[in-house]
Amino acid sequence: MPVFEYAPAPESRAIANLKDHYKPFVDGEFVDGSGEPLKTINPATEEVLAEVGTASKSDVDTAVKAARKAYNGAWSKMPGTERAKYLFRIARLIQERSRELAVLESLDNGKPIKESRDSDIPTAAAHFFYHAGWADKLEYAGYGANPRPLGVAGQIIPWNFPLLMLAWKIAPALATGNTVVLKPAETTPLTALVFAEICQQAELPPGVVNILPGAGDIGASIVEHAGIDKIAFTGSTEVGKAIQRQVAGTPKKLTLELGGKAANIVFEDAPLDQAIEGIVNGIFFNQGHVCCAGSRLLVQESIAEEVLEKLRYRVSTLRVGDPLDKNTDVGAINSAEQLAKIRGLVESGDAEGAQRWTSPCPVPERGFFFAPTVFANVHQSMRIAREEIFGPVLSVLTFRTPDEAVAKANNTPYGLSAGIWTEKGSRILWMANQLRAGVVWANTFNRFDPAAPFGGYQESGFGREGGRTGLEAYLSV
Amino acid sequence: MTATTSTSAAPATPAPLVDATRDDASLRRFLLGLPGVDQVGVEQRAAGLGTRSIKKDAKRWAIDTAISMVDLTTLEGADTHGKVRALAAKAVRPDPERQDTPRVAAVCVYPDMVATAVEALKGSGVHVASVATGFPAGRTSREIKLADTKIAVDAGAHEVDMVIDRGAFLEGRYMDVFEEIQAIKAACGDAHLKVILETGELATYDNVRRASWLALLAGGDFIKTSTGKVSPAATLPVTHIMLQAVHDWHVQTGELRGVKPAGGIRTTKDAIKYLVAVHEVAGEQWLVPDLFRFGASSLLNDLLLQRRTQVDGHYSGPDYVTVD
C-alpha cells in the first residue's frame, strides 16, 4: 500500500528576526521595565525563545501619563484624515512585515504557520485598514454631530490570537482618537513588541501606543489606575468578573469579551460533508484556543451515527505537529498550564461516562501537544458540555427537534457564537432569532471580518468589537 | 436485460442500496435525498487542501505516481494510425533517456483506433481505453451507443469511457440514465467502465453528487469528470465531491470504485493538488492507477520535465521531452 508521506515543509525560523531581549514600549521608546523579566517559550519545543522585560506598577503609571500627554497633546485633536494616515501606514507595515510576524506568532504561540500566515496577520492588517477608513467619518456614522474620544484606553489581550487581538483593540481606539496602554498576554508578548517597532516605523506620535508586557498583576494595575478612562479586556470569564467588580462605581467604561461554549447545530438536511468541515474548523482551528469555538456539537439524532463516523475519519486526517511546518493543521497547546487544564477536563469527560475517541495521528514527544479528541454521548449535565475546555476537544450532543436544538444551544451561561447547518433557509432565519449568541454562522463557521461586530451575551461579556458598533465603545456619544 | 447477456451483466446493486434502484420513484427519492453540497464550503476545502506543500521525496513520489496514473489521450477528428502508434510508444517509454520513468496507465483513443493501439501496446502492460457511446456529445440512440461500445471491446479495449445522457439527467429521467449505464456496463464484458458525467454541463455541485451516485449504482467502475470537450472540465471542487462519493460508497458497500478528472489539468503543481485530494478526501488506498487516473494529454510532459528537475537538480526545458 503506498503512503503519501508529505516531506516536512518548515518555514524558516530566521524570518522571525528573533531577538534575545525584548523591552516594554512606553512613550515611543523601548524602555527597561522595572518588573521581573519573563522568559517566553516556544510551546512546540519548550525552548526559551527570548527574555522579555516586564512592567511594574510604576511603569504602568509612567505609561498612563505618557498616553494622557499624547491624548491631550496631538492625538485627540488631530483631524480624522490625519489619524487615518497613521492607521493606513500601520496596516501597510503589517502587510510588509507579514512573514516575519507570522513566523514569530507561530513560534511564540504554537499555532500552525498556515493559520498565522493566512488568517491572523492578514486579518490584523485588515482591521487597521478598516478602521483607518472610519477615522475621518465619525461625524457621519450616526452617533450624532460630535462624537468624542474617551481618553486613555487600558487594553488587556489574551494569548490565543496575540497580534489579531491587539489589532481588534488598538485599531478602533486610535481611529476614534483615544490613546492606549496595552498589556499582551504573559506567554505571547513578542508580536506586540514588534508591533511597537511598527508604530515607530509609522512615526506614530510618542505615547499614543504603549505596550507593557507582564502578568495578571500588571493587568490589574492598568485596570485600577485612575488615569484610565476605558478598559477593554479579552480573556477568561473569571478575570472578566474580577475586572467588572474592580471597575464598578468608577467612571471607567468597560467592554469584556470572555469565554464561550458555542453550539454548532447540525440538522439532518445539512450539506453534510461541508458541515463536517465546519465542525472541524469550528473546534480544531487554532487548537481550539478560540473563545467562539464550536465546542458543543448538537447533531440531530437521525444522523448522529453518520456524522460521528464521517467526523472521526476526517479528524484522523488532521496533521498535528511542528507549527512552522506548512502542512501542519493543528499546532501546539500554548502552555503547560493550558495542557494540564485540557487534560483535567478530558478526564472528567471519561469519569462522567462520555465516550472518548482520540485521533490516531502521531503527536510529537516534545512540546505541549494534544491529539484532536471527540466525545460522543455527551449530556448537558456533564462538565465537558458546560465548561469551556479551550483545546482541541469536541463534545457531541444530540437533539430531536428544532425547538430542542434551540433550548440546548441556549442552555449555557455563555453566548458568544453559534453555528447552524441546514439547507432550509427559513430555519436558518428562525434559529438565528432564537439563539442567544453574538454571532450566528449559517453553513459556515469561524468567519471574521472587521466590519462584523463581535461580542457576547451573559458570561461571554458585553460590548462589541468591529464594525460601526465596535467604534461606539471608544466614543462618548 | 436478456438472458443471453446476463453472464456479463453488471454486478447487482450492493445489498444496502438495492432499494434505491427498485423503480423510477425510489431512484429519484434516493438521489434527491442525498445530502446537499454547500458551494462555498466545498470550494473552501478544495482551496485549503490545494495549499499543501509537497516537496523533496514526497514530490518525487507524487510525480511518479501521477505519471503512472495518466491516461494518455488523443481524441481528435484528425487522429491517424501513425499518431496513435506514436502515442503508444510514448506511453510505454515516457522519457526515453530515463528508463526508470514509470509507464502511463492507459492510452485513450476513439473506438476505430483501438485495434491499432492494442497492437502497438501488446505486452507493455499499458491499457487501451476507448471513448465509446457517441463521444463526446452522446446524442445518439441506445443501439448506436451499444454498437460503439461493442466495436471498442471487440477490438480489445480494456477500458471503455462512456458519456452519460446529460439531457435525460437534467430532465430528471434518472432511471433512463441508470439503465443506459447498466446496459453499457453489460456490453463492456470484462472491460472496465468509466462513466463521464460531463460535470461542466451538470452545472451544480448537487447534480455532480447525484450523477456520481447514479453512475456508481449502475455499476460504473470509475466516475470521470469530463470529456475534455466542454468547459469547465475537471475542477478541484468537483473532483472533491466525486472522491467523497467513492469514499462514501466504499463505507456503505465495501467496494472500491475509481475517480478520473479529465481536461484542463496541465501542470505538475495541479496534478499534485489532485493527489493530495485523493489522499485526504477519499483515502490512501485510492492512490493507485486502478482507482485514480488523470485524463490529460499535456500534463505528461510537464510531469516529465519536473521529474527531471527533481532528479537532475536543474530544469531542462521543453525540448528535452518528446512532443508525441
Automatic annotation (TrEMBL), chain A:
PANTHER family: ALDEHYDE DEHYDROGENASE-RELATED. The keyword Oxidoreductase applies. Residues 30-476 form the Aldehyde dehydrogenase domain. The keyword Transferase does not apply. Belongs to the aldehyde dehydrogenase family. InterPro entries: Ald_DH/histidinol_DH, Ald_DH_C, Ald_DH_CS_GLU, Ald_DH_N, Aldehyde_DH_dom. The active site is at 257. It comes from the Bacteria. Pfam families: Aldedh. This is Aldehyde dehydrogenase family protein. Keywords: Oxidoreductase. GO terms for molecular function: oxidoreductase activity, acting on the aldehyde or oxo group of donors, NAD or NADP as acceptor.
Automatic annotation (TrEMBL), chain B:
GO terms for molecular function: deoxyribose-phosphate aldolase activity. Keywords: Lyase, Schiff base. InterPro entries: Aldolase_TIM, DeoC, DeoC/FbaB/LacD_aldolase. It holds the Pfam family DeoC. One of its GO terms (cellular component) is cytoplasm. It catalyses: 2-deoxy-D-ribose 5-phosphate = D-glyceraldehyde 3-phosphate + acetaldehyde. Its EC number is 4.1.2.4. One of its GO terms (biological process) is carbohydrate catabolic process. CDD domains: DeoC. Pathway: Carbohydrate degradation; 2-deoxy-D-ribose 1-phosphate degradation; D-glyceraldehyde 3-phosphate and acetaldehyde from 2-deoxy-alpha-D-ribose 1-phosphate: step 2/2. PANTHER family: DEOXYRIBOSE-PHOSPHATE ALDOLASE (PTHR10889). Belongs to the DeoC/FbaB aldolase family. DeoC type 2 subfamily. This is Deoxyribose-phosphate aldolase. It comes from Amycolatopsis mongoliensis. The gene is deoC.
